[in-house]
Amino acid sequence: MRKIVLLFFLCFITFEPFLFSNTHEFPFFRNISVGSRASSVNCFAQDSLGMLWVGSNSGLYSYDGYSLHQHTAADIKYQTFIYSIAVLDATYLALGTEHGVWLYNYNKDRYEDFPKDGPSDVRALLFDGEYLWIGSLTGLYRYHVEKRTIENYGEQLKNKLGNQTVYTLLKENDRLLIGTYNGLYTLNSSSGEVKHLSLPDYNVHRNQFVNSLLTSADERGAYVGTEYGLYYYNYSTRQLQKQPVLKKHPIKSMIAYDSKTLLLGTDDGLFVYGTDRSSLERIKHDSRNPNSLANNIVWGMYADRNQNIWIGTDLGLSLWAHQQAEKKLPIYRFTSRSDGNRFYKIIQDRHGWYWLGGDNGLIRTNTLADSIGESFWYRMDAQDLTLPHNRIRDIYEDPEGLLWIASDGGVNLFDPKTKAFRNFEITDRTGKRNAKWAYDVFEDRGGQLWIATYLGGIFSVDKSKLIASDGKYTSPDNYNIGEGLLADFANQILQDSYSQVWALFYNKGLNKIDPKNGRVQLVKDEQGNPVEQATFMLMDKEGCIWIGQHGKVLRIGSDGSSRTLVFDPVGLGEVTAMEEVGQKIWLATGDGLWQLDKKLLTFQTLKHGQDISAMYYNALRKEVYLGGIDEVLIMPAQQVGGTDSSNRQIVLTAIYVNNERFGAYDYGVRYRDEIVLNHGQNNLRLEFSNLDYGNDVGYRLVYAFKGRNEQWIVLEQGDNKVQLANLSSGTYVLQVAKMDTQGKIVSDIFEVDVDVKYPWYADGWARFLYALLLIGLILWIINFFRVRNKLKLERMERKKVLELSKHKMDFLTTISHELKTPLSLILAPVSQLIFRTRDTDKKKQLENIQQNALKINTLIQEVMEFDKKDGESVRINHLIHSRIELVSFTRRLFDIISATAAYGHLSFTFSSSVDTIYIESDVTKLESVLTNILTNACKYNPKESGRIDLHISQTEEQVAIVIKDNGIGISKEDLPYVFSKFYRASSSLNKHIEGTGVGLYLVKSYCEQMGWKVQIDSELAAGTQVKISLATSAILMKEDLISHPFDGDRRKLLIVEDNEELSLFLSQTLEGDYLCKVARDGREALELCEKSYIPDIIVSDAMMPIMGGLEMARQLRKNTLTSTIPIILLTAKSDKQTEHESLAAGIDAFVGKPFDLDFLKMQINQLIKRKERLSEQLRLDEISKPRIEVIESTDERLLVKVTQVIEEHIDDSDFTVQRLSEKVGMGVKQLYRKIKQLTALTPVEYIRSIRMKKAAILLRQKKFTVAEVMYMVGYSNASYFSKCFQSEFGVTPKVFVERDA
């Protein structure tokens, strides 16, 4: 029996698991993934700036507290295992890798050369101030940092140390502890003495593999981590002692948590070893808890300058913050169930049980520690622990110790005996309101139970009667919106020190109820405004009411005073829970946790980012329980907020330009205060950090551009990225700082200059060029306006001159018109006398008279033509054509010029290759052309031996007239411009010769109008030759000149002329060939035609009183009977406008005054012949075509109908186009188009025309007065009727009657 007991005892003391508990009490980690390229993290280091450097299986990383940045220089050779890191100075890191030692310049972010004779596979580095000790798979090396030399210690101590694989190094005063694959060694670097330290109680069949070394807290020894347990090495005794823990676990890494606690990293998790009690607690990865250890394989550990613990695992790194003081309990820790619950209420009853209510039922447990205790979960689906509804709104323990819950299933009472809940159905007297959805419950000082409900108002219930009831209870007291409440749903209720009941309505306001008289009062703040953003309320021990809102708290004292306190002006978080903790008020929002000092009324941030919806203070344990989603956070009541005041720096850690990493290598972004970019690199993302890795208080980074109106822009919690999009070129000073929740800057302000270069077209030189261009532009504008003003003045002056010229020309034109009529009476008789006279002397005198009259006519014509615009031309068929014999015509003009006394010093020669040439041309313009050319040839030939030659020639292609002189000539420079109006050559030879520069301009214009071509050749001081030519096709044959007499009776000719002498002359001259009748004006001619006198042809003057020739022609063309009568217009105005108006009016021929009588006869003859040929052709067509029945067209029928309708309503003064369209049965717009198309008149004009014609008929009958006729044709206004009548017939109704008489 004793042997059995002894054996059991031996097994008990050698069985290892009894020495450690299952999990550590504070396992809350922040886990950081290294990414897809890397997984395991082996080592850490912190540089002089405070940046954390991480060695992984895929190279070097830096971590700024927000994100990891890889430092591999985009070179695959740097993406390798890094086993150890040593900080050499403020510039360099030494990296122990599988490819040897690398030097990394962390000021410039670049790799630099290390001596090539170093080891290839490095596992340990130790820097002791002058030397860098290097442990590798090929032995021990020492590198002199200043001299940059390396020596192989393993080779020197080969006989003593051997070619050992070195895994870890530790400095022991003047000695070096060396952990190798085959045990532990000590080395005296001065003497070279090496000693091997044997590990006691080690597995004899295994190598004494030393993984890690750590100096003890009292520095009297070192802990040795091996593949089979932990040892302690005493520096004074030089002895090794095996520790009674983890005898079969490989100790890969070690670090001191405090003076009595070690953290041991193994392949089976992290262990907390209490060295004073030899206690061991295990921390391991839990897949259910995202804040558990990242992985159970721990490769390395490191404590930074703020005592944060960094743990490198096989799946990233875990941070155990030094400032962390809370315990985080996932729901499964105290329920052993995987179900979740968001807690809204936490209390502890007088029996020590914790009650936690949320959206998934009610939990009752006797512990909220890490160890598992007894717990019960009440839910709707539980068999023995059932509830009416899972959503728990409130848990309340009354003064008698009875536990009540308010839920969406009503009010429930806990029975301690049966461990079950009893449900009550509470309604008001009407039965319309109930307490089915209960939100809050409490008992007042009078024993009444108050229940806040959703849609049922607030109930006041006698507690004793409610308990004694069978579960159904009718409450006599109910407060609702009808009694003055803000709403029928109240979220919270409480009783103040004056027995007043306060009710909070979420985001709506508060009411205060007096239970004695039932009076309801609205609660207001210190400004007298309703508290509309109220979300939570609490009454403290002093009787003060604290009302949580969005980012602020309203304090209402027991004396009624109120004050609003702002705690979160930036986030404006909604208060979700409040709890009195000693002399502090803790309050939670969706953004974090705050603490309010009730006396000082100041706030302190305790935690940020935690979603807290319930709070309970355990005064006995001095702990605050915070309920959240699927977890409870336990925090000590005494909190020290804030961060380390010494860590006030802000560091620029990364730059991204246009979404690409910038300055990752050989740039040294963390040590720069200026960033220079090209103009296209204007989309920036700058990342900053204060390198305070353990900060969990919730300070935020803020930034602003330095300037007069700088304004801090607050980043979200956990965000360190400043986005600068579409920056314009220029220099910006960006300021970045850390701000607390009160809006105060709590760090140094970091400034960085961002210089975005200007593009080439906007840099300094470009701006200088632009300035020059701008100055030039300004000068140009000044000059432009100066010139414009000058031109404006010139134009004004020119306008005045032109106006004066126009007045002169108008006067001359009028005089010319008056002169042309008597001139016609001279030329026509003279032409006949010349033809009849046989006396040679008389004939010569008559010819001289005719020539001078023609010259006067030419001068008058030039005066009238001069006012035309440049480039204005007349079509050939609009010219006044006459048949002339060109040779004699030219010879006559040549003789006139040669006989001029002023040109007596010149010799003239006329020659022609043909005797006669007949052409049809405008005599006046042709004479002007030849006269101008000959006159110029004479004027610009001052020589005594001057010569003028004129030669006429005819070829198959053309008839040419060449005029040649040997005068002063024209230079080649001036020759292209001689046909320009008012242009004169600049030669000094012609300065004394008078001229206007108009002659050759008229020559060019007239030749183009008549179809002649003009060409000029000249040489200065040698003479000029002008050639005008006409195509041979324009020459008339002799048969074209024969005039055939009319066959049959004489034709009727109507002469319309207001000048009695001219009309008499025409009548007498043409009487032999035509039956002539004379009318004094156009009106008289119309009346003759209307009285059935239809002439065969009309010769009319253009300008006459009452009605001119053009208006007469228009009226004749409107009448079917007179529309085809040929009309010849006689006028002294031969300008383009008169010609256009004549064509538009239907004039057949246009003859200018003075006219050639023979030409007029030929025109009359040709027009009559043309009309006869047309009539004959129509008759032949009629005979040759088969007879068809004549059918009126649709348009004709429409016009007849329209006329009939107008005549039927002609006396109706209110008859309009609208009524006409209704009578005709056609739309107004369509009727307008049709009448306009058929009559060229609008409907209004057509109606007026019919009325006027009807009026004329009535007036001719002489049966009615003018007034009676006016009313009969639908007019009521005499002046308007007279105006319309005169517009239609050219005379007033009275004159019309008198003339007709």
UniProtKB/TrEMBL annotation:
PROSITE patterns: HIS_KIN, HTH_ARAC_FAMILY_2, RESPONSE_REGULATORY. Keywords: Membrane, Phosphoprotein, Transcription, Transcription regulation, Transmembrane, Transmembrane helix. The keyword Phosphoprotein applies. Residues 814-1034 form the Histidine kinase domain. The modification 4-aspartylphosphate is found at D1101. Residues 1052-1168 form the Response regulatory domain. It catalyses: ATP + protein L-histidine = ADP + protein N-phospho-L-histidine. Gene3D superfamilies: 1.10.287.130, 3.40.50.2300, Histidine kinase-like ATPase, C-terminal domain, Homeodomain-like, Immunoglobulins, YVTN repeat-like/Quinoprotein amine dehydrogenase. The chain crosses the membrane at residues 765-785. Its EC number is 2.7.13.3. It is an enzyme of class 2 (transferase). GO terms for molecular function: DNA-binding transcription factor activity; phosphorelay sensor kinase activity; sequence-specific DNA binding. Residues 1200-1299 form the HTH araC/xylS-type domain. PANTHER family: HYBRID SIGNAL TRANSDUCTION HISTIDINE KINASE C (PTHR43547:SF2), TWO-COMPONENT HISTIDINE KINASE (PTHR43547). This is histidine kinase.
